Automatic annotation (TrEMBL):
GO terms for molecular function: transmembrane transporter activity. It holds the Pfam family DctQ. Residues 23-154 form the Tripartite ATP-independent periplasmic transporters DctQ component domain. It is a multi-pass membrane protein. It comes from the Bacteria. This is TRAP transporter small permease protein. It is found in: Cell inner membrane. Keywords: Cell inner membrane, Cell membrane, Membrane, Transmembrane, Transmembrane helix, Transport. GO terms for biological process: C4-dicarboxylate transport. The chain crosses the membrane at residues 12-40, 46-63, 84-107, 127-146. GO terms for cellular component: plasma membrane. It comes from Amphritea japonica ATCC BAA-1530. The complex comprises the extracytoplasmic solute receptor protein and the two transmembrane proteins. Belongs to the TRAP transporter small permease family.
């Protein structure tokens, strides 16, 4: 199971990187097109969709690699037991928040599909299509947070803390 979850988080990170490459290609095509007198229809729309997909696909991978900002100025001086309780409370709150976001992201995609909403750019596409990566990315983040909640309950080190020392070593 661990191997499958790690592959899921890594795949999410790769999809995020792929979307950034896609943005680069779209913008480059738009620039070259202007030089040669033609336009790339809805380039701004598609690059915006790819940006949203990149952002949400990158959340779980970044969380697992300890890339999200953690402020430990106060809790670094707490006892081990107090810090454990604080970590657990924060992770439960994060799980609640991300679960809420996951539910409503999926609901948003479903409603867009049911009501047959389309984009308003030059190229009209069903709006649920660019919304799917957002929902998938937030669901993978939900799985990652749940994974760390379970790890912390089992008294294992959460994934984001495993990389905490790496940042301090790079600064020195």
């Amino acid at each position: 199971m661990r191997s499958l979850l790690d592959k899921l988080y890594l795949a999410s990170g790769y999809l995020s990187g792929f979307c950034i490459v896609l943005i680069t290609l779209i913008i480059t095509a738009q620039i070259v097109g202007r030089l040669f007198g033609f336009i790339v229809p809805s380039a701004e729309d598609f690059s915006g969709y790819a940006l949203a997909a990149s952002t949400f696909f990158g959340l779980a991978y970044t969380f697992r690699e300890g890339g999200h900002i953690r402020v430990t100025l106060v809790i670094q001086h707490w006892t081990r037991g107090s810090r454990y309780i604080q970590e657990l409370l924060v992770l439960f709150f994060a799980l609640l928040l991300v679960s809420f976001m996951s539910f409503y992201s999926i609901h948003m995609v479903w409603e867009s599909y049911i009501f047959e909403e389309v984009s308003s750019g030059y190229v009209s596409i069903p709006i649920w299509m660019p919304q799917v990566p957002v929902a998938l990315g937030i669901v993978v983040l939900n799985i990652a947070v749940l994974d760390d909640v379970i790890a912390l309950i089992k008294r294992h080190t959460p994934s984001y803390k495993a990389h905490e020392g790496e940042l301090h070593l790079e600064e020195i």
